[in-house]
Amino acid sequence: MAQVAELKKRRLQDYGFHLEYRTRWSDNDMYDHMNNSVYYFLFDSIVNTYLMTHCKLDPPTSSLIGLVVHSQCDYLAPVGFPAMIDLGLRVKKLGKSSVNYEIGVFERGIEEVKAVGEFVHVFVDRESRRPRAEGMTATMKEQLGSLAGSKAKL
């Protein structure tokens, strides 16, 4: 992951796909900010929303599934209820069977990024749990490829 100074330069427009999230009272923890586990819920949500809406992936029925092999988050500033959050998604690296995503977490109306996450999927056959020889589908490669590269340095 990039150095903190580089991460702090991220802006919502650096990401090719956006999703909004209205925080809930239950998202806050005893420290009065959004609990770290909620960030991972959000990462999973934006990635799978993109896969389902743009890549034609239907997780319950698809013979190709994405397994998370790595995730991490750099927390830069707190967010808490009742904030509206804008999530940004981009692809840092696209392989034959794997994709490395970056997710930016922004509080609506505030330019500075609150957190930057990384999420890595390896797409495998549902039954064998092994990557297919052909890797991802052509649609997935094309649509994920459209999120690769951006204004910010990866």
UniProtKB/TrEMBL annotation:
Residues 32-112 form the Thioesterase domain. Pfam families: 4HBT. InterPro entries: 4-hydroxybenzoyl-CoA_TE (IPR050563), HotDog_dom_sf (IPR029069), Thioestr_dom (IPR006683). Belongs to the 4-hydroxybenzoyl-CoA thioesterase family. The keyword Ribosomal protein does not apply. This is Thioesterase domain-containing protein. Keywords: Hydrolase. GO terms for molecular function: fatty acyl-CoA hydrolase activity. The lineage of its organism: Eukaryota, Fungi, Dikarya, Ascomycota, Pezizomycotina. CDD domains: 4HBT.
